[in-house]
């Protein structure tokens, strides 16, 4: 695996989510996520086993995906996003987790196509960002339960693709919280955290923040091919992020002997 400059096409990340999370469909309406539209809904229930440092961790993740034409506009209205952001500040862990999950899906998924149409996803991301989502997501990332933190991480990863969000996310205090998820944490959580950090590092101010947050030692451990700490994609992003630091040091002369 070689050091690559710039950002990879996000379709790889989104297609990975599709293959992991869109496996089994059922027509039941017993979703843990509030109904977004009145049209036809398909739900995806996924039981995954993810390794943690303490062993295997089993959990059930339920997605609600809408495949209705007329209702999709309602899904991404400002009022709906605002409601989700308000719910992120709820004292209820359950409400926080559900809201973070919906924002994750809005940011990453095109509700009309499970294989994801990036142009529509970009619209969703822009709407979420303009609605003031970054600060509430960071608060949940710092103080929510594990499920809410993981979904907030995924949402921030999606928003970090947008150039206009890189500075705001970096200045919001998210970097330290993302670094804290690199060890310990679920495989998915680590992958989303390191990918978000990689995206953020493209903005020059964030490189210093990532280094000051103590990310390097975790990235080195994560990149180790013998380590079971992360997925292959997480290891790849860890290597690319370390390359960013190496390039910066070389350019400033700090890495010269």
UniProtKB/TrEMBL annotation:
The reply on keyword Repeat is yes
| Higher taxonomy | Eukaryota, Viridiplantae, Streptophyta, Embryophyta, Tracheophyta
One matching Pfam family: Arm
* PROSITE patterns according to UniProt: ARM_REPEAT (PS50176)
Record keywords: Repeat, Ubl conjugation pathway
User: What is this protein's name?
Assistant: E3 ubiquitin-protein ligase XBOS34-like isoform X1
Residue ranges of ARM repeats = 173-215
